[in-house]
Amino acid sequence: QVQLVESGGGLAQPGGSLRLSCAASGFTFSSYPMNWARQAPGKGLEWVSNIYSDGSDTYYADSVKGRFTISRDNAKNTVYLQMNSLKPEDTAIYYCNHDQYWGQGTQVTVSS
Question: What single-letter DSSP state applies at residue 91?
Fold first, then answer.
């Protein structure tokens, strides 16, 4: 069955960085695009970024463009989200997504 397991969340200071990982299994990872999304406290789910199956194209929400970078390693069945210049408004649970499948999420808190 499809499994998506996020890791790498934690507490960061404003201006700091974190790198999230999502380990995927149960499907042919290299054949599918992948997404990151997030849900801030009291708010709805927000799409963050998308990467094409071979990594050739990437897309970002305006709120993170220029600060976040999505990448993938198809040999490791893993997608990453490098988050730089973090802001308090980036505080959220971050989820990895493939088709209708979601991971359990990883908490990112940006606070001084």
Answer: -
CA-based nearest residue to 109, from 95, 96, 81, 90: 90
- 61: Cα within 13 Å, side-chain hemisphere: 14
Q: What are phi and psi for residue 88, nearest 5 degrees? A: -55, -30
pLDDT for 34-82, tens place per residue?
999 999 999 999 999 999 999 999 999 999 999 999 999 999 999 999 9
Burial of 39 (0-12, 13-18, 19+ CB in 10 A): middle
Cα torsion 35, 19, 85, 11 to 10°: value is 110
Under a CB-based contact definition with an 8 Å cutoff, are residues 112 and 14 in contact? yes
Strands, sheet with 68-73, edge to edge from the N-terminal-most edge strand = 3-7, 18-25, 78-83, 68-73
Q: Is the dihedral of CA 49, 53, 54, 56 positive or negative?
A: negative
Q: Which pairs with CB-CB distance under 8 Å and at least 24 residues apart come from 42-47?
A: 43/92, 45/95, 46/92
